[in-house]
Design a protein that fits this description.
The chain is α+β, with helices and mostly antiparallel strands. It is built from six helices and ten strands. The protein has helices at 9-32, 94-104, 115-123, 161-169, 204-213, 234-256; strands spanning 42-47, 50-53, 69-72, 77-80, 108-112, 125-127, 141-146, 188-194, 219-222, 226-231. A ten-stranded mixed β-sheet has the order 4-3-2-1-5-10-9-8-7-6, with helices on both faces. Helix 2 (94-104) runs parallel beside helix 5 and helix 3 (115-123) crosses helix 6. The structure holds zinc ion (ZN). Residues 40, 111, 113, 200, 225-226 line the site of zinc ion (ZN).
Length: 266
């Protein structure tokens, strides 16, 4: 196969402008849906070996393209930094985003602080089964739901074709997990819920262990905090986050109504 041509500096600049603008637009949408209010939440997009990351601790709906960091995903080195006068810092979520990129081939990651994600993590969880000794990869609780149409918007492990191709390119061999493709209506979605920590960066070990223990999970929830969800590209990650938002909301309402979350109508 012919080697991939190296893009010109003009092409890189044009791609940078496009993806910086895209991150701003997507962050504004996350704010509107309640996923990134109060400076919380965030997202990143990986394209052309460059990771476009929203800055930390600022109103996500007001960031400008020049505020978006461009990072080398291999070593988290910021290759393009916003002007010092802007006083911006790189997202504290970066090591968490990196886990989804490395282990799931993610091309985009969304971090949501939504009410639905927090309430589902409090009310719509069940203990890890006795078969796993009540704990699996450090995880003691999971969010589980089945028989809901919006499950079809999710991929096992958050790995669509683009993610699988990225894992193969990286020499990762066979993608992790036992299931592939989209979830079906009757499938049971299981998302590990990890404990929150005082600082975002301290979530890395818990999230890594949870991802290893639940390779088919398309997201990791953080108790009293929110959720990390990913996809092979920005549209897949955005769509998965929206499907999860729906499922979190419905599951919480079903729980409040005394309905079981798994098994459908019996
Ligand atoms: Zn957070």
């Amino acid at each position: 196969m012919a080697p991939t041509p190296t893009p010109s500096s003009t092409e890189v600049a044009a791609a940078d402008a496009h993806f910086r603008t895209l991150v701003c637009e997507l962050c504004a949408q996350l704010f509107t849906t309640g996923a990134a209010t109060g400076t919380g939440g965030g997202m990143c997009v990986l394209e052309g070996g460059r990771l476009y990351v929203a800055p930390s601790g600022v109103p996500k709906e007001r960031i400008a393209p020049a505020d978006v960091f461009v990072v080398s995903p291999a070593d988290a080195y910021a290759v393009v930094v916003p002007p010092a006068s802007r006083g911006l810092s790189l997202s504290a979520c970066l090591p968490l985003f990196a886990l989804a990129i490395e282990r799931r081939g993610a091309g985009a990651v969304v971090h949501s602080h939504s009410v639905a994600a927090v309430m589902a993590g409090l009310l719509a969880v069940r203990p890890v089964g006795a078969a796993d000794g009540g704990v699996r990869g450090g995880v003691t609780e999971v969010f589980q739901v089945s028989h809901l149409e919006m499950l079809k918007g999710l991929w096992w492990g958050g790995r669509d074709a683009a993610a699988d191709a990225r894992l193969a390119e990286g020499g990762g061999g066979k993608p992790p997990g036992g299931r592939h493709g989209r979830f079906g209506y009757e499938d049971t979605l299981t998302i590990p819920v990890i404990r929150n920590t005082p600082y975002e960066s301290q979530l890395v070990t818990g999230m890594a262990d949870a991802m290893d223990a639940y390779p088919d999970a398309p997201a990791v929830m953080v108790k009293r905090h929110g959720v990390y969800v990913w996809g092979g590209g920005w549209a897949a990650a955005k769509g998965a986050n929206e499907c999860l938002e729906f499922l979190f909301e419905v599951a919480t309402r079903m729980q409040a109504a005394g309905m079981g979350l798994v098994g459908g109508d019996k």
